[in-house]
Specification:
By secondary structure, this protein is of the alpha/beta class. The chain has one domain: Arginase, Chain A (3-Layer(aba) Sandwich), CATH 3.40.800.20. The chain contains ten helices and eight strands. The chain has an eight-stranded parallel beta sheet, sandwiched between helices. Strand 4, helix 7 and strand 5 form a beta-alpha-beta unit.
């Protein structure tokens, strides 16, 4: 089966500086791997459109979006200690959100899809950029699915090694969207305790670094089973950060590419449409290999 990959050239132009870990090299490695002549996977390439402004406003405050747009129009700047923009960052972010909506649409049509985007999004709150993130693309896609199709059961699974505090904050009062997150604890941003349950729709799995990889795989599967017990999702959206791979410089998990394959194969047994959106991961060649394995499992 063909996997639909959405991306936009502006994602390679967004640049936070030469020493920043969230660099264009991350996406360059993924795109090169997916375009390799030896790749045993059928890819259909799509250049994403900018997300509709009304969708952005369903997630983010207008004054915040205006601030981002104006800052980037002036050449960019620093939003916090970690989050830096240039003149292309806002364009990259709105096309990234557009890619997330597009892959959700493909999933609802029964076709596997992946948004190869940057900057990432799962730390972005309604009116705050943080953790390299500007726009929370996966939540934009989830809101679109709820509104467009009237879905009552959308599941976001976040396997990025950092807790998606922005995603949780944006959905924790929305019973139609459930959020499952496996993340290293303690680690930035310091949120994601197991007792944080929202309206019963949040399932956090905080774990220490250095555990056997099988433990992380089993624990996320257990949270998935809990979240879907009596609640079969009509759409699954994955915040696909690959910084839980062994050797990532910003964390201490021990996963290998085949672990993402095992998760996808297990979750597909529910029969729910599934799409994924790139988040973190900071060893370019490692995340490229993991992305290919992940997409092969989606297909």
């Amino acid at each position: 089966m063909t996997v639909h990959v959405y991306w936009h050239p502006s994602s390679l132009r967004h640049d936070a500086g030469p020493e920043h870990p969230e660099s264009p090299a991350r996406l360059e490695a993924i795109l090169a791997e997916l375009r390799s002549p030896s790749l045993d996977l059928s890819i259909s390439w799509h250049e994403s459109e900018a997300v509709d402004e009304s969708l952005l406003l369903s997630v983010h405050a207008s004054h915040y979006l205006n601030q981002l747009q104006e800052l980037c129009a002036l050449g960019g700047g620093r939003l916090d200690a970690d989050t830096v923009t240039n003149e292309h960052s806002y364009t990259a972010a709105i096309h990234g959100a557009g890619a997330a909506v597009a892959v959700a649409r493909r999933a609802m049509d029964g076709e596997p899809a992946f948004a190869a985007i940057r900057p990432p999004g799962h730390h972005a709150k309604a009116d705050t950029a943080m953790g390299f993130c500007l726009i929370n693309s996966v939540v934009v896609a989830a809101r679109w699915a709820v509104d467009r199709f009237g879905l009552g059961r959308v599941l976001i699974i976040d396997w990025d090694v950092h807790h998606g505090n922005g995603t949780q904050a944006l959905v924790e009062t929305e019973s139609r969207i459930r959020y499952v997150s496996l993340h290293q604890w303690p680690l930035y941003p310091g949120t994601g305790r197991a007792e944080e349950r929202g309206v019963g729709n949040v399932f956090n799995v905080p774990r220490p670094p250095g555990l056997p990889r099988e433990a992380y795989v089993a624990d996320l599967n257990a949270a998935f089973e809990q979240a879907t017990d009596g609640w079969v999702p009509q759409l699954i959206l994955i915040s696909a950060g690959f910084d839980a791979l062994a050797g990532d410089p910003l964390a201490g998990f021990t996963l290998e590419p085949e672990d993402y394959v095992n998760w996808i194969r297990h979750w597909r047994e529910l029969g729910a449409p599934m799409a994924s959106v790139l988040e973190g991961g900071y060893v370019p060649q490692r995340i490229a290999k993991a992305t290919v394995a992940h997409l092969a499992a989606l297909a």
